[in-house]
Automatic annotation (TrEMBL):
Superkingdom per UniProt: Bacteria
Family matches, as Pfam families: CarbopepD_reg_2, Plug
Ranges of residues in domain TonB-dependent receptor plug: 280-358
Keywords for this protein: Cell outer membrane, Membrane, Receptor, Transmembrane, Transmembrane beta strand, Transport
Protein name: TonB-dependent receptor
Membrane topology according to the record: Multi-pass membrane protein
Major localisation: membrane
Family of the protein in this entry: Belongs to the TonB-dependent receptor family.
Subcellular location: Cell outer membrane
GO cellular component terms given for this protein: cell outer membrane
Record's keyword annotation contains Transmembrane: yes
InterPro entries found in the cross-reference section: Beta-barrel_TonB_sf, CarboxyPept-like_regulatory, Plug_dom, Plug_dom_sf, TonB-dep_rcpt-like
Amino acid sequence: MKRFFVVAMLVVGMKYAMSQEQIPSISVSFANTPVKEALGEIEDKTGYKFFYLEEWLEKIRVTGNYQNTPVNVVLDNIFKDTVLNYFIMDSQQIFLMQNNQIYDSLPDDFFGAENQLSDDDFPNYDQLQDIGPLFLESDDSGTRGLQVVKIGKENRNSGRRTFTLSGRALNSRNGQPIPDLAIIVEGKDIGTSTNANGNYSLELPIGENVITTRGLGIQESRTKIILYNDGSYNFQLNESVEALDEVVVQGNRDRNVETAITGVTLIEVEKIKNIPLVLGERDILKAAITLPGITTAGEGASGYNVRGGRTDQNLILLDNGVIYNPSHFFGIFSAINPFTTGSAEIYKGNVPAEFGGRLSSVFDIESKDANTEKFSGEASIGPVTSNVVLETPIIKDKSALMVGGRATYSDWILGALDDEQLSNSTASFFDVLAKYNHTINENNEIKATGYYSRDEFSITSDSIFNYSNRLVSLGWDHKFSEKTTGSLILSNSEYQFGIEFDGESNDDFDLGYKNNETEFKYKMKYLPGGKHKFDFGLSSKLYVVNPGNIDPLGLDSDVTALTIPKERGLESAVFISDSYEVNDKLLIDLGLRYSFYAALGAGDQRIYQENAPKNSGTLVETQTFDENEFIETYGGPEVRFSARYFLAPDFSIKASLNNAYQYIHTLSNNTTVSPTDTWKLSDLNIEPQEAYQASLGLYKNFEGNKYELSLEGYYKKQKNLLDYKVGAQLLLNEAIETEVLQGDGKAYGVEFLIKKNEGKLNGWLGYTYSRSFVKLDSEFSEERVNNGEFFPSNFDKPHDISLVANYKFTRRFSASANFVYQTGRPVTFPIGSFSFNNSEFVFYSDRNKFRIPDYYRLDLSFNMEGNHKIKKFAHSFWSFSIYNVLGRNNPYSVFFVTEDGDIKAYQSSIFAIPVPTITYNFKF
């Protein structure tokens, strides 16, 4: 049965409302006074009588000093930050209302021309031209018994008909945020999903909205929300204990089609645990390279190449702190503990305006929040590593601490590798992460993360190498109002490496290198309602690079101590972006970032002759700069533009255009990234890198997002790429600018991805065609490579195919396969020899003219979960995997040795045989 009900109370046809002139003035003072006492004092001084429900006032306290102030002004201040309204009658009665208001008049022509009152004369609330009492048409036959929640405070002076509802979805058992929860408004084409922190935001029409929530392992809920203004509501949801044949994840179901940003990928740790990876390690960064547009220079290589970019052009963040070397164990493992990680969002196309300082991509990795409800943990035992994570509440339902550690016992595996040097090597690593999260109140939350990792290895018996990452980050999230939130972030990161050489000669040494950066960032989010969503803020980062020092090791060493002076630089930026929904089909995301960089003293800078190559013979003078003096400045605007247009509800086209500056560079003349690569700041002689990228893509979902299909192309131009001269000495070189070159780059490609999200068989197939080129041209021959023409970069691999497939036999048993094919990367080969002064020398081809053999690999795994009983100590998970099932002898590198006057080529491989692994995981 249909009926009408009135949300706002009406007083019509009577003259009860008191006029402004009749309201008396009073003098009162309150100091953190309970509001009930404050109202009682007003009653004593005025003769007014208040009417309300006492539970409305339980938590409200007031502070203020009022001298000869009208009563209505006092009440306005008292109830300003509450959801309470009031209405003053001339019979000296004051009625309080929660959320809604009392009206003493209706808009003109409210009942129509005939002024007759009937059911047909009631307009729908969205047809009212003026703001007046809110009528809602309701059919409650399907909503009886639902929890009713009133949100916001009605304001009769507001002209808005839609408001923003935001909040979090939390697990009622442990207080953990629920990511990827689908939030749907019944009967309206409105919905969203929660992010990794459980946060959501919806634009809803005023009045009644019935909201349904659905998520994996979470009981479905329905809530009737009556919305009067912007407000927040946190869903407290129960876990689902119902046994299901199949679970369909609905969170983010249309994210790939709906968002405006191109080239963005979200990876969740729980969803990659079945992918067979080397030595049984669940690895979020290794899973990333199975996706189009992301690759590495080779098996066992550190770093990642994204859309034709270099490894130093990726900004890898862990809880907002930078990790410079994200790899362990010769690049075989990533340095990110999978058990402490929640998700990673990878931006390889249009990067949000808040991020800067890198040209190719951002890996924004977030660790999960600790369990505030009860003690819990997760652990694994594998053939090479063991891992354990423990979570414990500090203050129940408010704060908790997570500590995770991982270590290796890997020396035995090196002996089985098909490489003589590696088989005689030793290696070990560990990493540890601690995170504290504390909810102070509904408006304030703080999080603190500390991380440290260290690798130590010896490839030869006389040298020990080590490198480490350390970061500390602190974040404070504050909710200013229903529309405005802010985040303050402080972080410090450090990367260092060392080499200890102890040989038979008298040249033993201890070498060290370190760089450090400290960043401050403040960002805000403003939701004005309607079609706009603003993000804005500022950031500043201080770099301190110690390019290296070498000291004699032992009293007999002939090595002379040397320390290269440190470098300092300050990179700052302001940014703003607006996500603007032009109409139902067109969404525009426009961002602007202005970055400014200053190379700072104290320090010396060498000045060289103009129009001459940089070498010791063209040095003119050396300038000395004082502490914090600007040596050189760079900067400029960075535009981040992307747009999405719906061709159909499940089919969109997206385009983006962006540019970026990078003020820090790696120095390396290795084919693949090495732990001994150093970093160099821009200064008088080395300019910052620049990049411009355009992309265009089509995105389509089929059968309710059962299948996803995307096709995206890009074109990228780069300037001032840092490369090296032939035979360059990069380590411990004070005049490094004489050994490097800066040139142009270009990259282009097409990325294809088809993904099946549901069913017993699921997974994805990705294909990338991409090219990456470098040009090092100069009027001087010593600064020109390959005659100044474009040549392939070290990581140019045109064809890249990845297939990941999972088949679920039952809820407990599944099998997975991972197949990879890549074109062999470029190398430089010797093509002849010549004699000079009775010595033989090798003559090499143009740089990167040849290629090593193509790479392909097949991995298989069988996965077995423990039983799904609710009451048991821990949930277990076994993984039996074989890495490189085909035993493919994929080359890691190709090198040449002169033996008895002949040049011989050798190929080095990491895993030339199948590598079986058994890993046991348990979670409690």
